[in-house]
Amino acid sequence: MIVAMTSTQVVLAVISGGIVGFALGLLGGGGSILAVPLLLYVVGIHDPHVVIGSTALAVAVNAYVNLIPHWRQRNVRWREAISFAIPGAVGAFVGSILGKLAPDKELLFLFAILMIVIALVMLRRKPGTEIDSTGTAPTIRWGRVLGTGGIVGLVSGFFGIGGGFLIVPGLLFSTGMPMIAAIGSSLFSVGTFGLTTAISYAASGLVDWWVVLEFVGGGVVGGVIGTLLATRLSSQRKTLTYIFAAIIFIVAAYMLYVNASAVHL
Description:
Blueprint: H1 7-27, H2 35-43, H3 48-72, H4 78-101, H5 104-124, H6 142-159, H7 164-175, H8 179-203, H9 209-232, H10 237-258
């Protein structure tokens, strides 16, 4: 499906992708949660299902690209990553079917609640956990790997998000691997869940391929800038995280207000 866009909307799509890529490069997980509200309320694409399908593919592409440097630095534990991703892909497929059936306003209302949860997770994250690479993983509990992967994939597919904020703790919970390995390994699942969701949405004609290209293009540039600044601004990382979480809260509050009619009391 191709949505007719003005030249202004094309520019806004690229800029929006740049904002998401910048946030991901600078702060890590959680940045992609802004992709849906940006395309809805800034770019002006009014079909939430097209937005979710398109952002799912864009997030998948970015995740696979970012997986490469982690792979080269040996931060990816492939056995655990693949074992987590397989049941997660099944869950993502089921979740995407349920997401396509959900009415627009109800889906966006639930999405806003998810944004608040992500912001709270970001605020509760302990300083330094993103780069901790020490420790030895204990015995892997494969039942937890498969079960947690399926649940996280279901949530990811329903909302069309990468789910990195859930995948990283899911890997830590089920495998006990070091944080840096969980971050690197999570990207494989983020890409796989996003691709599965995008395929499901594309089969229903709910992916705008031009928007994906524009968003990914902006995201690559923004990601490079964010990554370069991450080192220089490392001492202010905690403050930046607070600011970004506050932005997520504000956007979520706006989405709750706009879609409040979905709640029938």
